[in-house]
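Fig. S4 source data, part A: sequence.
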Amino acid sequence: MNDRVLLTKVGERKLRDELSHLKKVKRPTVIQAIAEARAHGDLSENAEYHAAREEQSFIEGRIQLLDRSLSIAEVIDPRSLNVGSKVVFGAHVTLYNVDTEEETTYQIVGEMEADLNNNQISISSPIARALLGKSEDDEVTVVVPAGEKTYEITEVRYDE
């Protein structure tokens, strides 16, 4: 893992909420499930016990990852950077696909908070790397696995 974990303010809040939920809700629940499964006797053929131990392992690993990442996180509020319409970390960028005439809005976020289902792309993704430093009305060609795509940046905004 890098020595720097970039997060937006919202991303940091979500990760802290997830960490709190894992520690206060999920961990005690899985500990209780393990105790109940142990009470059923022979652990070698106890599917509930093995499933609960596997879930516990996942939860503890995620807690460690979140603890470490949040301890070295650099939270960036792009609204305080005075960058105008330039694309930087945290920006919401609306792109017009020149070929398909479709419009899409992405937010450029850190790797830990990237979520394509919510149009949040990692700062290290090909699209984000091509957009950084550009401004509204710029045209950008992005090399993606399917080939090249050309976009026009129609809007850059900085929400929380």
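Fig. S4 source data, part B ends here. The longest helix spans residues 9-38.
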